[in-house]
Design a protein that fits this description.
With 258 residues, this protein is α+β, with helices and mostly antiparallel strands. Helices cover 48% and strands 20% of the residues.
C-alpha cells in the first residue's frame, strides 16, 4: 500500500468514526473541525512509517491520539465529557473495525477501497443507530412511568403506570376516563363489594372486546390527585419487561403530577 493510500484510508476511517461518535454523544461540531481531525489522523498514520518517527507507533501514543482528535473536533468542555467522547470514539472504532474484518472475510478481499470503507461505515452507523434508538426508546418510556395509588373504602393498591397519550379508554355512559391495570395488581379483597361494570375497548381499529371495570374513590399520580375514578382490569401483561403494570391517559392534571 502506497503512502497516499495509507493517508486516504486512515483519514476516511477517522472521518467515519467521528461521525458515529458525534451521533452517540449528541453533539454537532463544525464540519471543518471534523475534516481537520480526520486529516490529522491521516498524517499521523503516515508519520509512523518514517524511519525516525517509528516511536509514534507505541501503544501510549495510540491511546492518546483519540484525545487529540476529539479535542480538535469538540474542544474541551469537561473531563467527564472528554472521557464520554473517548469511550464513544472507541466504541465507534471497534464497530467499524469489526464490520471491516467481517467484509474482508466475506469478500476474501483484503484491499481497501473508498467503496469498501463507505459500506463498512454505513453498516456500522446503521447498527449503532438501531442500538441507540432502542436505548432511547426505553429511556423515553421510563421517563413517562409514574407511581400510582388507587383508593377504595380505605383500601389502597400501588403500582407503576405508563402515561400513554394513545390510551383514551372511557366509560361509554359517563364519558369518564378509565385507568387500565393488570389483574395481578388488583387483589380480590380490593374489589369485593364494588359494583362491576363492562367497558368496551378497541385496539388499533381491529381487536375489540370488553373489560371489567370498577369505580374507585381516588387515584394519586406521584402523590397528586387526578381526575380519574375508574379502573379497568386486563388479564395480559402490559409491558413485556415488567417496567409498568398500568396504562393511564394523559390529562391536564399531569402537569402538576409529573
Amino acid at each position: 500500500m502506497y503512502i497516499e493510500d495509507i493517508f486516504l484510508v486512515n483519514m476516511l476511517m477517522t472521518y467515519g468514526i467521528i461521525m458515529i461518535t458525534k451521533f452517540l454523544v449528541k453533539q454537532s461540531p463544525k464540519t471543518w473541525r471534523v475534516v481537520l481531525s480526520s486529516v490529522f489522523s491521516g498524517v499521523y498514520s503516515v508519520l509512523i512509517y518514517l524511519p525516525n518517527l517509528t516511536f509514534l507507533n507505541a501503544i501510549v501514543f495510540k491511546l492518546f491520539l483519540p484525545f487529540i482528535l476529539l479535542y480538535i473536533v469538540f474542544g474541551f468542555i469537561s473531563v467527564k465529557e472528554m472521557f464520554k467522547e473517548y469511550l464513544a470514539f472507541l466504541l465507534s472504532s471497534f464497530a467499524i473495525s469489526g464490520v471491516v474484518y467481517a467484509v474482508i472475510g466475506f469478500t476474501k478481499n483484503s484491499r481497501y477501497s473508498i467503496w469498501f470503507l463507505l459500506i463498512s461505515f454505513l453498516v456500522s452507523y446503521g447498527i449503532i443507530f438501531i442500538v441507540n434508538r432502542c436505548k432511547q426508546k426505553k429511556e423515553d418510556i421510563i421517563a413517562k412511568i409514574v407511581n400510582i395509588k388507587i383508593f377504595k373504602n380505605e383500601k389502597v393498591i400501588e403500582t407503576d403506570c405508563l402515561i400513554d397519550t394513545g390510551c383514551n379508554l372511557k366509560d361509554p355512559f359517563t364519558g369518564e376516563l378509565v385507568l387500565v391495570v393488570e389483574n395481578c395488581v388488583v387483589n380480590p379483597d380490593f374489589i369485593s363489594g364494588i359494583a362491576k361494570k363492562i367497558i368496551p375497548y378497541k385496539v388499533l381499529g381491529n381487536t375489540s372486546g370488553f373489560l371489567n371495570a370498577y369505580r374507585v374513590d381516588e387515584v394519586l399520580i406521584n402523590d397528586c390527585r387526578v381526575n380519574i375514578n375508574n379502573i379497568a382490569i386486563v388479564n395480559q401483561k402490559l409491558s413485556n419487561d415488567g417496567l409498568y403494570k398500568g396504562l393511564c391517559p394523559y390529562i391536564d392534571d399531569f402537569e402538576k403530577a409529573i
